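TL;DR need structure tokens for one chain.
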Amino acid sequence: METLEAIKKRTSLKEHLSTRDVEREKIVKILEAARLAPSAMNKQPWRFIVVQGKKNVEDVVTKAFWETNQVVKQAPVLILVFVNIKENTLPDGKTFCLTDAGLAVENLLLAATDLGLVTHPMAAVSGDKLKKMLGIPDEMDFVIATPLAYPAEGSYVKAAQERLSQRTRKDLKEMVYMNAWGKAF
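>> reply
TL;DR here they are.
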């Protein structure tokens, strides 16, 4: 799949998860894509925890995910993303690590789409509960979680079809200016 095609086809599908195991090789490819994301000063501040196995996933989701995300209990894999915000803040107070983590997560999501896997980034998760359950150091901050699964429908295209047909995006003229704020591009 071409990059632009993956961007157009990627959508969040937490209710379309198969319980079929995801091969370790695919998980590694996806994490490798995340690892290769750009980062400020090449700090690479992101850290990932892969939760795999029915009991492990159910336990984490049941105890740490908000009610709206309980549906992902059936996912064969969860990927949890953390950063250390204090360690990755510039002297002027500007925090770059959340942007860096976002870049890594987008690479992860696009790689998963390219491999025909379903994702759904979720922030409605208790980082404190995850820390207790998984032995995560206090200085680490939860950023986002995503299930990683094959689509229940058998193919990513089938799973994403309805959601993509309903997708709306602002027109470029609503968000892009030329040379100054408010000047048409």
